[in-house]
Design a protein that fits this description.
The structure holds 2 protein chains of 2 kinds. Chain A has 6 domains: about 15-185, 2-Layer Sandwich (Beta Polymerase, domain 2); about 205-245 and about 250-270 and about 280-320, no CATH class; about 330-440, no CATH class; about 445-625, no CATH class; about 635-685; about 700-880. Helices cover about 55% and strands about 10% of the residues of chain A. Chain A has 35 helices and 14 strands. Chain A has an 8-stranded antiparallel β-sheet with strand order 7-8-10-9-13-14-12-11. Chain A has a 4-stranded mixed β-sheet with strand order 3-2-1-4, sandwiched between helices. Chain A has a two-stranded antiparallel ribbon with strand order 5-6. In chain A, β11 and β12 form a beta hairpin. In chain A, α24 packs antiparallel against α25 (about 605-625) and α30 packs antiparallel against α32 (about 760-770). The radius of gyration of chain A is 36 Å and the shape is elongated. The two termini of chain A are about 65 Å apart. By secondary structure, chain B is of the alpha+beta class. Chain B has one domain (about 1-110): Alpha-Beta Plaits, CATH 3.30.70.120. Chain B has helices at about 15-20, 65-80; strands at about 1-10, 30-35, 40-45, 50-55, 55-65, 90-95. In chain B, the strands form 2 sheets. Chain B has a 4-stranded antiparallel β-sheet, with helices on one face. In chain B, strands 3-4 form a two-stranded antiparallel sheet. In chain B, β3 and β4 form a beta hairpin. In chain B, α1 (about 15-20) runs antiparallel to α2. The chains are: A alpha+beta, B alpha+beta. At the A-B interface, α22 and α25 of A face β2, β3 and β4 of B.
Chain lengths: ~900, ~110
C-alpha cells in the first residue's frame, strides 16, 4: 500500500504545543500510552496469551486514534462529515503486534474535503508518532477506491481487512456496503492473481521451505503472512463458491498455530525493541527456556521447542498451499494444457485405477482404497516415476485415512522392493516430500524421525537437518533439466547412475546421526543404517554400498577443498579409496547434492568445477589403470572364504586358480554371490566349453560368457547379440591368468524377443554357443538385422573420435573410441581389431544416450601396439564407423 | 598500514588460515578465483570430450595489517602456502592510506 514516512514536525514548534487548546495535551497522552504499553508488555511476560496481548494493543491504538482524531476536529473547529479513518491490514484484523505499524486509511468524501483537511491529517499523523505509534497512512477519495491500481496490489489486499475507526460512519458504510463489494467482485481475478504472485515470490525468496534454522516468523513460509494470505484467499474464493470443507479439527490446528506464532512475534518485538521478526538462535533458546507458546511453563531444549514451531508453521503453510492450488488465477496456456494431457496419459500404469492427473497434479479417485497402504505407496511410486506431485487434496485425503482408525489399514509394512521403486525413480523427491508431509516417511524409515525439524546451530547451513536431506534429493532430480550452469556437468552422471535407490537411501540417512547423542554424526548415521538395513532386508552388498557412501560422504568435498586435485598422487589415492567407477559416480552426485543443499549459495560455480575436475581425473584414472592392478588370489583370503561358502564342494585352490590374474575391477563390480556363480560356470568348462548365464535385469538383460580365449571372441559374441537384435549398453571383458575369458554384456532386447517368448532364451544361448564354437556361421544371423537397423537415420549425430594412450598401462595400448551408438557397433569394432591382429586384454563398454564410449586395452603379439598399427587401426575404424 | 593480497592454491588455504590465526591474524577476506600465471592450464579428455582448464582455481586472501605485522604475515604465508611447484601463487603488497570501521567510525590502525 502507499505509505507515508514519518511527517516532519513543524520546525520550531515543540510537540506539546500541537493540539493547542486540547484538554488532553500530548504531555499527558504520551506518558499514558507508554504506561499502558508497559502494562501490556508486563502482562504478556507474566503469561497473558498473545491473543489477549494483541487485543489490548489494538484497543490502546484505537483509543488513542479516536481520541486524537476527536481532539483535532474540535481544535480545528469542524465536524467529521466527509472524512473517516479506517484501520487496514493486520491492524484492521485486530492483530497489532507491539512494534507493528498502524495502517490507517483517510477516507474522504470528495477532493475538496481532501484540500481542506490536509493540515488536520498531517497533524493527526504527527501527533500519533509523537506519542509512540508508528503510522503508515494513505489517503483516498471514496470514488478512487473503485479503481484498481494495478501497481499497488498491496493496498487493495490491505483494504480487504478494513475496519472503521473514527469519523463519518455514513461514508464508511458507503464504501463498505456499496462501493467495494461491487468493485471487489470485478477485481476478484486481479486480486487472486496478485495474491498468487506475491505469495509465490515470497515463498521462493525463502527457498519454498518452512525449515529455516533462523526463520522469520512473519515472512518465511509457515509464518504469519501465510495465515494472512490464506484468509484473503478464503475471503475471495469462498465468497464465490460458498464455504469449503475445512474441518473443525483443521480450524483448531490453524487457530493453535496462529496463537503460537503470535506469541513468538510479540516476544521477538519486545526482545528486539523493534519490528524484527527473525527467530535467531539466541531468541530460540530464550523462548524455549520460558516455554513460550506452549503454556505449561516447562523449560525445553531449543531443538525440542523449535520442533513445536515447525509443527505449527507446517499447519499454516499446508493450509495456504492447499488454497493456492485450488484456484489457478491465470488460465493455463495451450502448451501447459497439452503437457498436462500428456502427463495424464502417461500416468495410467502404476496407480491408474486409483488416481488421475488434473492440472499436472495427482488426484485420488478411489478414496476408500487408500486404507490399503500398498495402494497409497503405488501413488507415491507413480509420483516418483512421472514427477507429478500429489495434489494437496490428495495428501489431505491420505492424511485423513492415516489418522482415522475407523478404516483399518492394510499392508502397512513397506517392502524394500516398493521403496526401491520410489527411491530409484527419476523424481524420488516428489514422492518423498509428500511422504514427509504426511508422516509416512518416518513410518517407512523411522530413523529419519531423529532429524525431523531438527535445528543444528551452524554458521553455514540454512535449513533444518531433514530439510537439508530432502533438498539433496531434489537437487539431484533437478538434474533432469538443471536450472543453472552449476549442474550442467553432472547431468549425464545422474542420468546414467546405477542403483540410484542406494544413493537416495544414503542421502536420507547420511545426516541422521546429527539427531543422536554421538560425537561424530557419521557414526550415528551408520548405526541408523544398521537398523534400517535389517528392517528393510537389504542384501549385504546393498548395505555395504550405502555404508561406504555414508562413511565417506564428506571425503570428496574434503579432497576438493584440501588437496591438490591436479596432482596425480591425490587422484590415485582418492581412486584407491573409492574403488570403482560406479561408486565414484554415486559419491560425486552425493557430494554435489550435499554441498548444494547447505544453502543456496554454498555450491559456487568454482566449487562445482573443482568437483567435476576431480571426478574426471579419477574416472580417467580408473579406466586407464585397469590392467595395472590384478588379483593375486592367495591375498584375497576373505573373498575366497565367501566364495567357497557359496560354492559347495570346491577347494580354495580351485577358486584361486579361477580368480588369479583378473583385473581388480572384476571384484569391484561383482558380488561374492556373482563370483561364486561365475566359478560354478568355470568348473563346467571342461564338459561344455562355452558357459553362459542369461538374467533379466531392471533395464533389460545381462549375459555372462565364460570360455577359453580364442581369436575374435569378443567380435563373435557381440555379433551374435547384434544378430538377435540386442543393443549392448554396457560390457566388461576380463581375462584371468589362465586365459579364461569372462565377458559380461548388459543389453536391451530391442524387439522384445526374449521378453515375450521366454522359450527363446534357450535357443538364444544355443545359438551363441554354436557360433562361438564354430558350429554355426555368424553372417546369416547378422546380415538382415544389422542392415535393417543401419537404414534408420540417427536422431543425434556423434562424431567418431579415437584416441590411443601408450602411457597409462605398462603392458597394453589403451584405445578409447567415442562414436555414434548403433546395433552391431561392437561387432564392427571387434571384427576390425581381430582382422588387424589386436588382442583385447580388457574392455569397458558404455553408452550415454546415442553415444558409445568404449575403452579397449590392446596388445599385438603380447606387446603394446606400434605407432603404425595404431594409425592403421584408426584409419580402418574411421572408415568402418563413419 | 599495508594491504596483503595473496593468491594461493586452494589446497593450502586451511593451513594458511590456521597459521595466520596463530600469529594473531583473524580478519581476512577470502575469494574463490580462477586464473593463471606461469602455470598454464591443461586439457582433460572425458568420454571423448575435451575439457580445457585454462584458468585454474585459486584462493585469494586479502587483509589489511598494521605495518608491524606485515613481515610476519608474509613469512607465514610463504612458509605455509609453498609446495615448491609452479602454481603456488603470489603475494602482492600495497600501502593503505586509511581504514574506517563503519560501526563506530574508528579510523587508522584502531579500525583494523
Amino acid at each position: 500500500m502507499t505509505t507515508a514516512a514519518r511527517p516532519s514536525l513543524t520546525p520550531g514548534i515543540p510537540p506539546e504545543k500541537n493540539m493547542q487548546g486540547s484538554p488532553t495535551p500530548l504531555s499527558v497522552l504520551g506518558p499514558q500510552a507508554e504506561a499502558e504499553r508497559q502494562r501490556i508488555r508486563q502482562q504478556f511476560e507474566a503469561g497473558t496469551s498473545a491473543r489477549e496481548t494483541l487485543r489490548a494493543l489494538c484497543e490502546l491504538a484505537d483509543h488513542n486514534v479516536q481520541q486524537i482524531f476527536g481532539e483535532l476536529l474540535r481544535v480545528h473547529n469542524r465536524d467529521a462529515q466527509g472524512l473517516c479513518l479506517l484501520a487496514l491490514g493486520g491492524y484492521g484484523r485486530r492483530m497489532l503486534f507491539p512494534y507493528s505499524d498502524l495502517d490507517i486509511l483517510f477516507l474522504l468524501g470528495n477532493e475538496r474535503v481532501e484540500q481542506e483537511l490536509r493540515p488536520l491529517i498531517s497533524e493527526f499523523s504527527r501527533t500519533l508518532w509523537d506519542i509512540g505509534f508508528r503510522v503508515s497512512s494513505a489517503g483516498r477519495v471514496v470514488d478512487e477506491c473503485k479503481r484498481i491500481e494495478e501497481d499497488n496490489a498491496e493496498f487493495h489486499l490491505a483494504l480487504l481487512d478494513r475496519r472503521f475507526l473514527a469519523g463519518d460512519s455514513a461514508l464508511f458504510e458507503k464504501l463498505d456496503a456499496k462501493v467495494l463489494p461491487a468493485s471487489e467482485k470485478q477485481a476478484r481475478p486481479f486480486l487472486l492473481a496478485q495474491i498468487h504472485r506475491l505469495t509465490r515470490e515470497r515463498l521462493t525468496r525463502f527457498g519454498n521451505t518452512i525449515f529455516h534454522l533462523e526463520p522469520n516468523v512473519k515472512e518465511s513460509p509457515g509464518g504469519m503472512r501465510d495465515y494472512q494470505a490464506t484468509i484473503w484467499l478464503r475471503q475471495i474464493v469462498e465468497e464465490k463458491r460458498g464455504i469449503r470443507n475445512v474441518t473443525a479439527a483443521e480450524e483448531e490446528l490453524s487457530a493453535a498455530a496462529v496463537d503460537f506464532l503470535s506469541a513468538i512475534r510479540c516476544f521477538l518485538h519486545y526482545s528486539n525493541a523493534r519490528n524484527d521478526n527473525t527467530l535467531t538462535y539466541e531468541l530460540q533458546a530464550a523462548a524455549a527456556e520460558r516455554a513460550l507458546g506452549v503454556g505449561d511453563g516447562v523449560a525445553r531444549a531449543p531443538a525440542e521447542w523449535m520442533r513445536q514451531y515447525f509443527r505449527h508453521a507446517r499447519t499454516l503453510n499446508r493450509q495456504l498451499l492447499r488454497y493456492l492450488e485450488q484456484k489457478a488465477p491465470v488460465p493455463l496456456s495451450l502448451r501447459q494444457r497439452l503437457f498436462n494431457a500428456a502427463r495424464s496419459t502417461k500416468s495410467e500404469p502404476a496407480g491408474g485405477r486409483y488416481s488421475s492427473v488434473r492440472d499436472g497434479l495427482l488426484e485420488v479417485v478411489d478414496l476408500p482404497s487408500l486404507s490399503d497402504r500398498a495402494i497409497t505407496y503405488s501413488l507415491f511410486a507413480e509420483a516418483a516415476r512421472t514427477g507429478t506431485p500429489l495434489s494437496r487434496e490428495a495428501e489431505r485425503s491420505i492424511g485423513y485415512i492415516l489418522t482415522h482408525p475407523e478404516l483399518p489399514p492394510k499392508n502397512t509394512q513397506i517392502s524394500w522392493a516398493t521403496l526401491r521403486e520410489i527411491l530409484g525413480s527419476d523424481y524420488p523427491g516428489v514422492a518423498l516430500r509428500s511422504m514427509q508431509r504426511l508422516g509416512l516417511l518416518t513410518e517407512v524409515l523411522p530413523e529419519f524421525a531423529m532429524i525431523d525439524s531438527l535445528v543444528v546451530r551452524d554458521f553455514y547451513h540454512r535449513y533444518t537437518v531433514d530439510e537439508h536431506s530432502l533438498r539433496t534429493i531434489e537437487h539431484l532430480q533437478e538434474l533432469a533439466a538443471p536450472p543453472d550452469e552449476r549442474g550442467a556437468h553432472f547431468v549425464p552422471l545422474w542420468k546414467t547412475a546405477e542403483r540410484r535407490d542406494l544413493l537416495i537411501l544414503t542421502l536420507l540417512l547420511h545426516d541422521v546421526g546429527k539427531g543422536m547423542p554421538v560425537e561424530n554424526h557419521v557414526t550415528g548415521s551408520l548405526a541408523a543404517l544398521d537398523s534400517a538395513a535389517k528392517r528393510l532386508q537389504l542384501s549385504p552388498e546393498e548395505k555395504e554400498e550405502v555404508h561406504f557412501l555414508i562413511e565417506h560422504h564428506l571425503d570428496m568435498s574434503a579432497t576438493v577443498q584440501r588437496r591438490d586435485i591436479f596432482d596425480p598422487a591425490t587422484v590415485s589415492a582418492f581412486a584407491q579409496s573409492v574403488t570403482t567407477l560406479e561408486r565414484l559416480q554415486r559419491l560425486c552426485l552425493l557430494t554435489y547434492a550435499d554441498i548444494h543443499s547447505v544453502n543456496p549459495e554454498a555450491l559456487t560455480p568454482w566449487k562445482a568445477e573443482m568437483l567435476w575436475q576431480l571426478f574426471v581425473a579419477t574416472s580417467n584414472h580408473f579406466s586407464r589403470t585397469l590392467d595395472r592392478d590384478r588379483l593375486h588370489a592367495p591375498d584375497e583370503g576373505s573373498l575366497l572364504q565367501r566364495v567357497k561358502a557359496k560354492a559347495g564342494q570346491a577347494t580354495i585352490e580351485e577358486i584361486e586358480r579361477f580368480l588369479e590374474g583378473f583385473p581388480r575391477r572384476y571384484l569391484a563390480v561383482h558380488s561374492a554371490a556373482e563370483i561364486a556363480a561365475h566359478f560354478e560356470l568355470y568348473r563346467k568348462l571342461g564338459t561344455v566349453p562355452v558357459q553362459t548365464e542369461l538374467l533379466a535385469t531392471r533395464h533389460g538383460f545381462s549375459l555372462t560368457v565364460l570360455t577359453e580365449d580364442r581369436p575374435a571372441l569378443f567380435a563373435t559374441i557381440s555379433g551374435v547379440l547384434a544378430g538377435w537384435g540386442m543393443n549392448i549398453n554396457k560390457a566388461d571383458a576380463f581375462a584371468n591368468a589362465a586365459g579364461v575369458i569372462l565377458d559380461t554384456f548388459h543389453f536391451a532386447d530391442l524387439h522384445h524377443t526374449l521378453e515375450l517368448n521366454p522359450s527363446e532364451a534357450e535357443r538364444f544361448r544355443k545359438s551363441l554357443a554354436d557360433v562361438v564354437n564354430g558350429k554355426a556361421p555368424l553372417e546369416p544371423l547378422l546380415k538382415s538385422r544389422v542392415s535393417a537397423s543401419r537404414a534408420r537415420a540417427p536422431k543425434i549425430t556423434v562424431e567418431t573420435r579415437i584416441n590411443f594412450d601408450d602411457a597409462s598401462s605398462a603392458h597394453s595400448t589403451l584405445m578409447e573410441i567415442v562414436t555414434q551408438d548403433h546395433p552391431g557397433l561392437l561387432h564392427e569394432i571387434g571384427s576390425a581389431l581381430a582382422r588387424l591382429g589386436c588382442n583385447i586384454e580388457v574392455a569397458l563398454i558404455d553408452t550415454e544416450g546415442h553415444k558409445a564410449i568404449d575403452v579397449f586395452y590392446l596388445t599385438g603379439q603380447g606387446k603394446k601396439l606400434t605407432t603404425q598399427k595404431q594409425e592403421l587401426l584408426r584409419e580402418v575404424l574411421q572408415g568402418t564407423l563413419v | 598500514m599495508m594491504k596483503i593480497e595473496a593468491i594461493i592454491q586452494p589446497s593450502r588455504f586451511e593451513s594458511v588460515k590456521d597459521a595466520l590465526r596463530e600469529i594473531g591474524i583473524e580478519g581476512m577476506t577470502v575469494t574463490e578465483v580462477r586464473g593463471h600465471g606461469r602455470q598454464k592450464g591443461h586439457t582433460e579428455v572425458y568420454r571423448g570430450r575435451e575439457y580445457t582448464v585454462d584458468l585454474l582455481p585459486k584462493i585469494k586472501l586479502e587483509m589489511v595489517l598494521p605495518d608491524g605485522l606485515v613481515n610476519r604475515a608474509v613469512d607465514t604465508i610463504l612458509k605455509t602456502a609453498k609446495t615448491g611447484k609452479i602454481g603456488d601463487g603470489k603475494i602482492f603488497l600495497s600501502r593503505v592510506e586509511e581504514a574506517i570501521r563503519i560501526r563506530n567510525e574508528e579510523r587508522g590502525e584502531n579500525a583494523l
